[in-house]
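Quick start: load a record and inspect it. Here is DNA topoisomerase:
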Amino acid sequence: MKVVFMVAEKPSLAASLATILSNGKNTTRKGFNGACSVHEWVGVFMNAPAKFKMTSVCGHVLGVDFTSKYNSWDRVDPVELFSCPIEKKEAMPKLKMPAFLAQESKGSDNVVLWLDCDKEGENICFEVMGAISNSVMGNVYSSTVTYRARFSAITEKDIKAAFNNLGHPNENEARSVDARQELDLRIGCAFTRFQTKFFQGRYGDLDSTLISYGPCQTPTLGFCVQRHDAIQTFKPETYWCLQVTAISKDGQEMYLDWHRVRSFDKEVANLFLQLVKDQREAKVISVTSKEKVKARPQALNTVELMRVASSGLGMGPHHAMQIAEKLYTQGYISYPRTETTKYPDNFDLHGTLQQQQNSSEWGEEVKEILKSGVNRPKSGHDAGKWKLYFNGYTGC
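Running the structure step on this input writes:
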């Protein structure tokens, strides 16, 4: 009987996948590293009986760093960090992840990688393949040995569809992450060391042992400082405005806006106030009507998800993504990290809505939409990633 080794990106995801793929008939044991469990069951793979082993990593298996020679701030010029050699090291040595994967995959005939469907997940695929290259029976880099499952949601329909339509890891996407990691390391460390030493030399009483630099964090800090300076230099100025309520002949109240909006001169404001008080009636001299149409919303991407969570729910970005990741793992939403704002033409909007119609919160609205006909979302940007959508509802 074939042995098929499967790897997910996190322990909770591995448990969900194993339950779906085994129809709830898997057994579970703890791995020797204490962080990851191994789920086992018997099924069918490529039309043949097979024993399945599903486990997980805990994010990246490896990370990049400089060789020990370049760790000294005093002996190494920061400019050398742009060209010096780098190496890959275990991301979390305490978990012994490469050894754990090698042990659990020993003697396996095939590998199916269930890492998250983004570039980071693609990169982790190759990290896993490197860790088990000497344990799997065949060549782990062969297209007949290792397969890649691509899915956007933890639902039975999506997972079983992915299992029946396996592809292969994308090396180009994995290498793009390697390039990004190397750039982050070289640029971040070089500028961090340079500006820390520079400012410590310039300001002897500097209350900081490290002034870090990051390609994202530094420009963001610049925006924060710019806004802080604007607030600090702002000089408040008193102004006056008129608020008038008019009542029509049929008793309806209307709130009138002052065309001038405000006056910074109190005497001028009082003058206009007195003019209004002296008039008991108002005459409509012109009517202008405008029709406004609210555009259909686009598909939700990660940035818009965080913005809506912040403005509508008062949740910070980090908290919002924590909740989104949890909902994704539990099968309530699709993969939340995406740049795509466009649904494909063949996306099953009707089926997705049907899953929502039993909600006590919005079920009636969903039924009304299904009854009147679905108006497709506005076309957006296709970044080649999964779009974000809801699969079900928590017990409302």
